[in-house]
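Help needed: design a sequence for this.
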């Protein structure tokens, strides 16, 4: 795990609330008279769609949790300039479960390119993201 993630996951507040609410709503719909009377293909399509959205929500909330727990680090670019200012930034990432928002810290110095050393979308430390 990257040094940028200084706090362990078990210490985190209860994340994944959106995914839990989504799963509960899905369960209620599957218990409905409408779904009991639906064809196998309709139930399968519904479960597939809702399951993918649940997985997308889980991934997005996990990435938000990582960003929330990201510790500030000393960042010096390849240009030799130290990025002394950090701000919350983000981007969207297309994944196998859909588009997710990826929050992250952007390190800045006026007149220089922003850097994002803890880049969860890349799964490794990196410089500036595309």
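Sure. Designed sequence:
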């Amino acid at each position: 795990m990257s040094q940028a993630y200084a706090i362990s996951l078990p210490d985190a507040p209860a994340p994944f609330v959106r995914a839990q609410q989504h799963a509960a709503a899905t369960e209620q719909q599957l218990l409905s008279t409408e779904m009991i009377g639906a064809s196998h293909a309709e139930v399968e399509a519904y479960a597939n769609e809702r399951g993918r959205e649940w997985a997308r929500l889980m991934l997005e909330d996990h990435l938000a949790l990582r960003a929330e727990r990201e510790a500030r680090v000393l960042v010096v670019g390849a240009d030799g300039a130290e990025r002394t200012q950090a701000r919350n930034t983000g981007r969207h990432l297309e994944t196998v479960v859909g588009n997710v928002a990826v929050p992250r810290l952007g390190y800045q110095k006026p007149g220089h390119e922003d850097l994002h050393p803890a880049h969860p979308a890349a799964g490794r430390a990196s410089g500036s993201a595309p």
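The two ends are 22 Å apart (CA to CA).
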